[in-house]
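Progress report, Aim 2. The chain analyzed during this reporting quarter is listed below.
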Amino acid sequence: MDYNSQRKKMALPEYGRNIQKMVDYVVTIEDREERNHAARTIIDVMGNLYPYLRDIADFKHKLWDHIAIMADFKLDIDYPYDPPSPAMLLEKPNSVPYNQHRIKMRHYGHNLEEMVKAASDNFEDGETKEVLIELLANHMKKSYLTWNKDSVADEKILKDLKILSFEKIDREGMQLAEVKSMANKPRKKNGAHRHHKKNDKN
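Predicted structure tokens for the chain:
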């Protein structure tokens, strides 16, 4: 039996073993012009495998790079583009920049911390600031409940608000919205709605 596990490992298995065999054969062709013609034919076949990618910029360039990789960089032909080097496969990808924000309380999120800071530093005392603080506190309560489904005391939220504002916002005793009012109300089914309308007519 001929098992895939016993065959030569493919550099780009997404093209399949038949394409790999074609590339391996082209490498063995002695006549350069014949090799060039055979390589162009394989490029056309590779392109037909992914026709929806043909409009992508540098699509042809990628195919020629791929045939060089599949040939283990041993295919001596007239490439229309500068072929890649074996060292390219050993290059490490650029590190992904991760968010470096230090969040005091992750269940509230960085944006809310910034809004609390803006409310405490950029707004003068008055009705507008009080409305904003109340909105932020209720939003904190809602965010907290997404992590802890049971319940949360208003005192806990107001204490966290005080911490996040570096004690610039102290609203001990403020009454926040009830938990039930924060829950999404289930929508009535159309059938039930029609049923009520029918009963109204009777």
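The CA atoms of residues 32 and 77 lie 7 Å apart. The chain has a mean pLDDT of 83. These observations will guide the mutagenesis work planned for the next reporting period.
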